Amino acid sequence: MIKTNQLTKKYGDMYAIRNINLELDQGDLFGFIGPNGAGKTTTMRIIATLLNPTSGEAYVCGHSIYTKPKEIRRLVGFMPDFFGVYDDMKVIEYLEFFAAAYRIRGPERRRRCNEMLEVVDLDFKRDAYANTLSRGQTQRLGLARVLLHDPQVLLLDEPLSGLDPRARIEMRNLLRRLGSMGKTIIVSSHILPELADICNKVGVISQGVLVVNAEVSEVMKRVRERTLLHIEVGEGGEGAAKLLAEHAIVENVEPGDGRLSVTLKQDVEDFTALPKLLTDNGYGIRYFGEEKVDLEAAFMALTKGLGEKI
After folding, report:
1. Orientation of helix 165-180 relative to helix 135-147, angle to 10°
2. Residues of the chain with CATH 3.30.70.100
3. 2.60.200.40, 3.30.930.10, 1.10.8.80, 3.30.70.100: CATH of 225-290
4. Burial of 303 per CB tally in 10 Å (0-12, 13-18, 19+)
5. DSSP labels for 248-264?
6. CATH number for the domain whose boundaries are 2-222
7. Distance (Å, rounded) from C-alpha 54 to C-alpha 10?
8. What does the pLDDT look like over 72-97, one tens digit per residue?
9. For 215-242, what is the mean pLDDT?
């Protein structure tokens, strides 16, 4: 669906992005993570054919950005981080205006607009003026607008930015729903942890360089070579700690706050033997869980020192 090859954009001697290689399939929800100015927007604008690269190539659904820009624009919905709304337009009028621009005519235009309002849970605001909407509602209106022509690819630039906690949850749920519809989505954000539970792939970009491009699970694995478990037993914590420390897959056991922190040896992923070991020796398990690494920790670890290398 989306493929870039050595995509590069320069302004004078400064690289906005350098040698970006992406390959996304239908239904992928790709989290594009990086600080402001890292190159996320530049990459998305090139894919949307709104900006020409200095070098490299990009394809959307097999179409080149150089030879088939019109075809790509029919297939892509691009939502910038900030966009204007017209003060004297109602929500339904705003959508109908853009539907007309997409050449959706007649009864189909009103039907499509109403359908998109339902998709983004904004039908109760259809007769409100667009400039009276909250930030979260405005973001959903923008998403409804880019969905009008039923694009196969969505490029969403910072859709979570500036939203209150409730609005962020609603937007994440909406993105999950769109992903389940089979659309290929690139969603950029500097709110790093919020993408881990909605994306199946993630790219970490810093200073125009794509540091990581992998499955979310693979990113977590790269950040932490050893698995850390937290275990709480009913009674006999010291005995349980000694028992665990003697197991072949365990590197270290540390007590603390009523729980045992158990570090496994490098590259050990299967730890199903440990709960059985405890129960077979008479220890009741109150808690057994793996410590998760969030995307913020991943970003900091993977980009540490990158500026000096570029």
Report:
1. 20
2. 225-290
3. 3.30.70.100
4. buried
5. TTEEEEEEETTEEEEEE
6. 3.40.50.300
7. 6
8. 999 999 998 877 767 789 999 999 99
9. 81
Exposed e or buried b for every residue in 109-139, given b needs 16+ CB within 10 A? beebbeebbebbebbebbeebbeebeebbbb
Q: Quick one: tokens of 78?
A: 């691009």
| Angle, vertex CA 156, rays to CA 309 and CA 180, nearest 5 | 115
Residue with tokens 């125009």: 208
Which one-letter DSSP state was computed for residue 236? Answer: -
Distance in angstroms (rounded) separating the CA atoms of residues 33 and 35: 7
Pairing outcome for strands 153-157 and 184-189:
parallel
The residue type at 59: Y
User: Between helices 216-223 and 295-303, what is the axis angle to 10°?
Assistant: 60
What is the rounded distance in angstroms from the CA atom of residue 303 to the CA atom of residue 207? 10
- pLDDT tens per residue, range 278-310: 999 999 999 999 887 665 666 666 656 544 343
Q: How far apart are CA 35 and CA 200, in angstroms?
A: 20
Rounded-to-integer distance, Cα 252 and Cα 162, Å: 43
